[in-house]
Input
Amino acid sequence: MKRMQIEKHQHIEQCLQRDQVLKQRGRSVLILGSANSGKKTFKSLMLRHDLDSRDGNTQRKLVMAYLVKCLLYCYRQLRIHNDHTYHTSFPNEFEHLEIELRISKRQGYLTLGVANFMKYLKQHQDEFLTFTAHHVRYMNNIMHFMNDEYASMMSRPSWKPSIVDLLKIKMPSPSKFKSIVEYTSEFDGIRFKFIDPNEQEGERRKFISLFQGAVDSVLYFVSLSDYNMLDSTSGKNLLDIAFSVAQQVVSSDYFQASLVLFLTKSDDFKEKLTHYPFTLFFPDFTGNEHDSAQCLEFLKSRFLMGLDTRAPRVYFHVVNLCDTHMMNYVMQAFASINLCVIV
Output
């Protein structure tokens, strides 16, 4: 008994020493993820001071560029279909909308015609908007902006986007060149260096080998919102594809680091389940097809079953990256994962 107490005491001392070292030197975290998984949103959140430091005009133009891209898609789709699908005649007042969209993008606030088009979409084309938000990846956050309050607010030259507005848009990459990006942030006294290989997914085998023994954790992003979407080339489910790649990464000989799987867009996932039953895409699921908690447990088990037995431990976090309060708690939990657990 005395020997066991001594060993436990030594273990606690080792953990405390290790934790102190971690707080001094920090942790290196490799950031990976499928397309449209929220990696860029996470980066924006970690570098929130960078978003806040941008002047109001730059912030307005960033949001307006995203909104104009989405509205232009809606406009062209409705003109092409000429309402055969959605059963309303397209108003002539929007005949020159493309010109007004270009003006709005350049000046950073809405023209009257664009504001009226937003109101028209919400009032008369809500079915089309919902379908588009669920099936066109870059438009999955368009509904955040589609209300009369936003249309009126963004028509004022002095309007200011909120931090949530900036997180909802698809932030442009800072460079056209493919490169490895590093950025740092601190949680619970630990400095984290995040390493993002950026757009080099096509060369995964090559760049992953560069990080052998150089990272403490792998943070992998997967969009839950992709559960009802298929790859246009292979016809495979996009969520299954993302899980498969994550399984390959965590089972790789290059990594002995723990994997933290961020299952993102939990809010979109819950909302989509009311429109697209889970069993349509995962027929082996036997639970309540509209219950997000049951569906999530099924997906976690499905992921773990596909892992190599030698794979390191996997931690799951179901998140809405645009919920800044939730993410504060999540990142504190992430920091605790990277410390010794004393039992």
Notes: The beta strands are 27-33, 181-187, 190-196, 217-223, 258-264, 314-318. The chain has two domains: 2-33+176-337, 55-168.
